[in-house]
Model the fold of this input.
Amino acid sequence: MAGEQGLSADSKAGLSLVAAPFAYAIVLLALPIGAIILFSFWTQDFITIDTTFTLDNYREALGGQIYRTLLGRSVIIALSVTVVTVVLAFPIAYFVSFHVKPSQKSIWLFLITIPFWTSYLIRVFLWKVILGFNGVVNSGLMGLGIIDEPVTFILYNANAVVITLAHAFAPFAILPIFVALEKIDRSLLEASQDLGETRIRTFFRVTLPLAMPGVVGATLIVFIPTIGDYVTPELVGGPSGTMIATMIQTQFLRLNNAPLGAALAILAMASVTAISLAFIWLNRRWLR
Amino acid sequence: MNPLRIYAIAYLIFLYAPILLLPVFAFNDGQIIAFPLQGFSTRWFAELWTLSALHDAVGNSLMIAVCSAIFATVLGICAARAGARHKWPLKGPMLSFIMLPLVLPEIIVAVSLLIVFVQVLGLGLSNWTIIAAHTLICMPFSIAILNGAFGNLDPSMEEAAMDLGETRWGAFRKVTLPLVVPGIISSLLISFTISLDEFIIAFFLSGANPTMPVYIWGMLRFPAQLPAVMALGTILVTLSICLLVIAEYFRRRGLARAGLKDTGGFL
Done:
């Protein structure tokens, strides 16, 4: 950082204000992440930590069939959740931005965000009630005579995890897309139509490209946290919907193997980061 | 009717389905959470009064949520004010780093703090370890809300106060602070709501005394306790909707005071 003498009064005032929150984030975020990285190169035997540097945890995490399956499945589920959530969210964001009167926009956004703030655990549990064997969906479909016996492909598997997470992350996807759509200069759309484009072609050639930053933001803000979700796979996932967080929890709290748990957490983070960076890079190339 | 509007309404039904089902099962006079319903009953609410372990957990959660909300908001005020009024080298990276917990998977925050508290510092787990972690994850939300409140305040108002003889702090307290109070209240309420509802970090970092979500998690494993969970959930949803309506009211008042147009949403 620049020397103290080189800083203007404005810089000093800014730095002294931001110092407390920044230091807090360093101590409770950067240092712990540093510690977890360090731990992943150590080993643990019940309670004693062996601090010899080793790659054993990574060898085990990448070599063990169960860890590989769980990591791969977590990535695939997170990707599916992201695609489903963003695709379902876009029309809502578009509707609120283009078809709702300006005075009513904030009430729509408020309605969309309310369910997000209410008890996460109980919300996820209720999806079990909705999707279950005697659940709301099955009773409803049987009552209407559409199916004769309960369908089972919607609970205790990856589908249930995707549906439940798509519900949980809906506002995270809607808001960034909405903000991007709000920024679009409406006269550009008129210009495009005046120049003879149809409404559909205007959407694909003007609206969508201009909304892409919001879509990218939505994608990342859904994809990154989803991979580490613990509650949803535990409650509605069943054996075929278990994700990596369950294994991380098991290593830390049940098997007392924090270093292996740390290595799994870091591998999960590394996969998410790699995929996110690749996605951003592709987007830059494609948008140019 | 516009097909988009029909889709929007269907989407809202999808969003609200779980919440609308809560009271249905909470007032249902049956042990099993499924249709058909068994008739009206308030006995599950009465049962909540008998669970003393739940009362302790709620007490813990309230204490944690109040402390986390206050700490996160104080830190958030510093960051939002610095971001709105000053420029310094590395401003962008520093502020983005503070916002990082917003996108980080919570389990990563949970396990890394667990390692630091237990293995590195040798501290016992307690309500304070949860408060420390909740402050961290509430801070970005607080900053996002307060950015709206501090964002377009005209710096010349404070300068005018200082020209008229106020100190820097006096100008802040008498001019800026009253204008951002609605934002601060909104930030406190949102942080409180987040902390009260947070499960995974509390699950990893709670010591002998569980928080309310950790206690609910335990209840979910016992079918006999599920109807009581539905009753508890109904109360929580009602309370959090009230809190959110109040928070939204203050957020909008804050925006109006700062002379801003509402751009919607908390995030």
User: Anything to note?
Assistant: The mean pLDDT of chain A is 87. The first helix of chain A runs from residue 9 to 39. The domain at 58-116+163-287 of chain A is CATH 1.10.3720.10 (MetI-like fold).
